[in-house]
Amino acid sequence: MPTRVKICGITRPLDAQAAAAAGADAIGLVFYRASPRYVAIEGAQAILAVLPPFVTRVGLFVDAAPEEIEAVLAEVALDVLQFHGRETPEECERYGLPYLKAIAMDEAADARRAAVRYASAQGLLLDAYQKGRAGGTGQVFDWGRIPEDLCQPVILAGGLSAANVAQAIRQVRPYAVDVSSGVESAPGIKDEQRMREFCRNARGES
C-alpha cells in the first residue's frame, strides 16, 4: 500500500489547494496559539472551504482545554484530531472522533509502551523532540529507535523533506509521513514546488 502523505501547518487556502494538487492525502491545521502555523477558526473555515473531496482534515491541539477543542469542532469540520501534549487516552477519546497521538522521541520516549497506552488511537505520530516546540522543528530523530513490531500504525514526522523522505520510507516503512517545515519557504508558508517534490518522492515517482 502506498505511504500516505500529510502536509501539516497549512495557514492559507491557496496552500491547501496546492497540497491537494500535489497529492497530499491529508492536511493539518494547527490550533495551538504558540505555533507560527496557528490558525484561528475563521482561517480554518476558509482553508477547508477550498479543499477538494477525499483529503483528510486533521486538527492539531496541544494540551488544549476541552471547551477550546469543542469550540473548534462546533465550527470546523475536522475528520481526525491530533494531540501533541500530555493528553491521556481518555482525554483524546472524549470528542468521538478518530485521533492520532504524537510522541516526541526524546531520550525517555518508549514508542512500544505508548502504542499500548494509546491503543484506541488510529496511529502514533513519532516526531523529533525539541524543548518548547510541538512539531515543526525541522529536526530528524534516530529512526532506528522505532520498534518494528509496534501494534499501532506509525506516522513518521520530524525533519522530513523531499531529500530524505524516500530513505525514511525505505528504513521505517511507516503507514504515513508528515511534513511541515520541510516544504516551506517561511514558517507557515508552504512552497508549491517543494510539496510536489515531497509527494512525488514519497511515492517513489522521482
Spell out the blueprint of helices and strands.
Blueprint: E1 4-7, H1 13-22, E2 26-30, H2 41-49, E3 56-61, H3 66-75, E4 80-83, H4 89-93, E5 99-104, H5 111-117, E6 123-127, E7 154-156, H6 165-172, E8 176-179, E9 184-186, E10 189-190, H7 192-202
Parallel strand pairs: 1-2, 1-8, 2-3, 3-4, 4-5, 5-6, 6-7, 7-8
Antiparallel strand pairs: 9-10
CATH topology label: TIM Barrel
Spatial order of strands in the largest sheet: 1-2-3-4-5-6-7-8
Q: Tell me the number of strands.
A: 10
Order of helices and strands: EHEHEHEHEHEEHEEEH
Give the helix tally: 7
> What is the first-to-last residue Cα distance?
18 Å
Q: What's the structural domain tally? A: 1
Characterize the biggest β-sheet: 8 strands, parallel, barrel
What portion of residues belong to β-strands? 15-25%
What does this protein structure show overall?
The strands form two sheets. An eight-stranded parallel barrel has the order 1-2-3-4-5-6-7-8, surrounded by four helices. With 206 residues, it is α/β, with parallel strands linked by helices. The chain has helices at 13-22, 41-49, 66-75, 89-93, 111-117, 165-172, 192-202; strands at 4-7, 26-30, 56-61, 80-83, 99-104, 123-127, 154-156, 176-179, 184-186, 189-190. The model has no long low-confidence stretch (mean pLDDT 94). It starts with a strand and ends with a helix. α1 packs across α2 and α1 packs parallel to α7 (192-202). It has one domain: Aldolase class I (TIM Barrel), CATH 3.20.20.
